[in-house]
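Work Package 3 (structural annotation) set out to generate three-dimensional models for the target panel prioritized at the project kickoff. During this period the team completed the workflow that converts sequence records into discrete structure tokens, so that structures can be stored uniformly alongside our sequence database. As a representative example, we reproduce one entry of 113 residues exactly as it appears in the project archive.
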Amino acid sequence: VLKQNYPNPFNPETRIPFSVGDEKCEDPGRQYRVSLRIYNILSQLVAIPVLQGGTGSVAGGVRIVNLMLTCGDYVAYWNGKFMDTKNEVASGVYLYELRIDGQSLVKRMLVTK
């Protein structure tokens, strides 16, 4: 499940809640391959958020790229900057895509300055 980021619209940072696995977590030991990416409206990669808090063997602050996560609720953090630079992204609409074991979910967010 991919939830709406908050706050939305935002400036300069936001959090993106998401859930991995089924609601009942019938197989708590199962690992899911998870990635989260942020794109501009031209489908250009803008940022890769980090996992907030952490869980199990995955520390907080780790970029969410092919992370192996068990079922549960998570929160991603994005500082509103372009990739690993000090440059803030421009105002506008951005898309964030959560991929879990190859399945994709997408939502929109708005940056305001």
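The chain has no helices and ten strands.
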